[in-house]
Amino acid sequence: MSDTGYQSDTLREFTPEPADTRRVVVLISGNGSNLQALIDEQAHDRLGGEIVAVISNEPDAYGLRRARDAGIDAVVLPHREYESRDAYDGALIKVVERHEPDLIVLAGFMRILTPRFVQRFLGRMLNIHPSLLPAYQGLNTHARALADGVTEHGCSVHFVTEELDGGPVALQAAVALADDETEASLKEKVHAREHLIYPIAVKWFLEGRLQLGAEGATFDGLPLPPEGLRMSHADAAEELDEDDE
């Protein structure tokens, strides 16, 4: 573990003050594997809140089935039925607000949000990105990392701002690249880390520990460094029971 103060063996020792159940809306476009990780934590009362709706811009997104199987309201809002990005986001705002969320989680939502949408929910919206931000913003992160010959890659949970993949980072998990690493093997390792840290960050937010203020992200009232809290490769591998090779 890095020296940022994160301790993997105390992830779930914090007990929040009793409060009304915090409400979460998840936005998806596809398979929804990160959604499933959140659903699994919720099923074991470890999420710190309740996923009240899953909204997809793609009618055939498998994540909608995951939501229905878990008894969660699954909503389809096809973007192709709207004449502009702003018109779609205006409709999306109405659908989201109908569920009165405390937090909006982007879990593979493959649309660039308008400033109007971002500002409406600023400070209440998290995304996960498959790189150690600020490195490799945008697409094809694994291929780019391999092409550059980096020794470490990973994923980042960050607050959503108007800058694409540029909001303050809350939590990261690193993966050390093997000598024979391929894009497929790297993608699998990063996905496993996404499923590990996204529920943690969501829980921290719902407990009030993780917040976005005027000066950036804070954890337990203290400002976070630019890379947020960092889970090392070794600690992530231990949590995931990965075999050392």
Automatic annotation (TrEMBL):
Positions bearing the site annotation: Raises pKa of active site His: 165
Formyl transferase N-terminal domain boundaries: 23-201
Keyword Lipid metabolism recorded: no
Binding site for N(1)-(5-phospho-beta-D-ribosyl)glycinamide: 32-34
Protein residues bound to (6R)-10-formyltetrahydrofolate: 85, 110-113, 127
Ranges where the record places region Disordered: 223-245
UniProt enzyme class: transferase
EC number: 2.1.2.2
GO molecular function, one term: phosphoribosylglycinamide formyltransferase activity
Catalytic residue list: 129 (proton donor)
Catalytic reactions of this protein: N(1)-(5-phospho-beta-D-ribosyl)glycinamide + (6R)-10-formyltetrahydrofolate = N(2)-formyl-N(1)-(5-phospho-beta-D-ribosyl)glycinamide + (6S)-5,6,7,8-tetrahydrofolate + H(+)
Source domain of life: Bacteria
Known pathway: Purine metabolism; IMP biosynthesis via de novo pathway; N(2)-formyl-N(1)-(5-phospho-D-ribosyl)glycinamide from N(1)-(5-phospho-D-ribosyl)glycinamide (10-formyl THF route): step 1/1
Protein family membership: Belongs to the GART family.
Protein name from the UniProt record: Phosphoribosylglycinamide formyltransferase
Species assigned in the record: Halomonas kalidii
Name of the gene this protein is made from: purN
